[in-house]
């Protein structure tokens, strides 16, 4: 394969605006733009309608396929294809290979009435000869399913001006997409980037009628945006405000939401959307999993912690007096939209607590995360959402989110129901959950995880698996990010009792995730009591 490939390839129906919108998006991205039809006309020395008249469609498709194949190997900007190009089998194979090697094939979905009107008035379209409107409809019926199958991204431009549509296209091109799949999983995407909330209707689909919008008061500006977007897309929206943070993850709150859904007549064809931090998305997933034994849901996380942890992976749950997340289910979302724009309103302390889960993913698998955190610790610790965009930190945060989600996706795809591999994601969580219960959930989850990781590292060292250098790495990195590394609340007896209620415990057998080395977790059963207590003593300094 050649080193060059298009930044993105745009497909769509006649009149969708592929050329106009593509040119504007290319300008925004400061990259080149080419229209395959223009390139064809240059090569054959005549306009496409004239070529059709002289040689016919079959001959044109051969030339078109050859030129598209060449452009995909040689051009590195935005490339727009003619409306019928993806229907040629050889071009389909070229586009499929392009996607398989990481290319972005974007289906520009315009409102059919708008596109049909533009195409009919534009003229010079041989495939629309005769009754242009009816012919457009016939082509749409044939092409739309093929376009949706080929494309790995879509941009819905219904009612958008060319500039707004171009901005949506630009955002789709620069977004990061993590595909989550597995033997027990209905595949879904985690999309990370500016403007990904614009794809919510695409995630929910056309069959949904009612949407229960679950959110907290602190994210009102984001829930207002989502509500307006849902209503513009034709959905009936039931607004459900729940308490913030862990106060929203209770049986009483869930029961209140169930009552609202019943009063509003929610059926199995309806959906739930969770907007907010980790607690809100946990609750939304739990409600969706339990209402009528499971309805469609999507998560729109607005905090770093929710983006990298709670909204992804299909673990839903609520808290009880006995412990955290002891009541819940495994139920995967239809999609997760982590819109970086929502981080603009995130307070510094809530941003930095999310770094606890990010660092954990570095400790257990992707050690590049640790290097990125270390190199950017000062900037991350000083995060200011109001001045976030347009700085180098934006790309850093985007990459950290993508890498952390990929770590989670790896474990989830291979073990949805936490029977083995997925347990490694709980590194640091055994103590963290105990801290949260003892502190009556006043502690932020990411902060508790940071201390839990230090505890697990100390336990690993005591048991002879981890070097003192690696324990010191835990302490120095986490503290440089503004995260706590010690805790003086509670007693050892209280903590031990809660550890026996941990989800990894089997009967009376205590099980812990420790490290054999950085990036290599392992499970240990019933470690010596004196080792557990000594590790606890070391975090109380």
Automatic annotation (TrEMBL):
Enzymatic reactions: shikimate + ATP = 3-phosphoshikimate + ADP + H(+); 7-phospho-2-dehydro-3-deoxy-D-arabino-heptonate = 3-dehydroquinate + phosphate
Domain 3-dehydroquinate synthase C-terminal: 354-505
EC number: 2.7.1.71, 4.2.3.4
Record-linked Pfam families: DHQ_synthase, DHQS_C, SKI
Keywords from the UniProt entry: Amino-acid biosynthesis, Aromatic amino acid biosynthesis, ATP-binding, Cobalt, Cytoplasm, Kinase, Lyase, Magnesium, Metal-binding, Multifunctional enzyme, NAD, Nucleotide-binding, Transferase, Zinc
Localization (cell): Cytoplasm
Cofactor binding note of this UniProt entry: Binds 1 divalent metal cation per subunit. Can use either Co(2+) or Zn(2+). Binds 1 Mg(2+) ion per subunit.
GO MF annotations in UniProt: 3-dehydroquinate synthase activity; ATP binding; magnesium ion binding; shikimate kinase activity
Residues at which Zn(2+) binds: 357, 429, 445
Gene3D superfamilies: 3.40.50.1970, Dehydroquinate synthase-like - alpha domain (1.20.1090.10), P-loop containing nucleotide triphosphate hydrolases (3.40.50.300)
GO cellular component, one term: cytoplasm
Domain 3-dehydroquinate synthase N-terminal, residue spans: 240-351
Purpose: Catalyzes the specific phosphorylation of the 3-hydroxyl group of shikimic acid using ATP as a cosubstrate. Catalyzes the conversion of 3-deoxy-D-arabino-heptulosonate 7-phosphate (DAHP) to dehydroquinate (DHQ).
Subunit structure of this chain's protein: Monomer.
Family: Belongs to the shikimate kinase family.
PANTHER family documented for this protein: 3-DEHYDROQUINATE SYNTHASE, 3-DEHYDROQUINATE SYNTHASE, CHLOROPLASTIC
Protein name according to UniProt: Multifunctional fusion protein
Upper classification of the organism: Bacteria, Bacillati, Actinomycetota, Actinomycetes, Bifidobacteriales
Gene: aroK
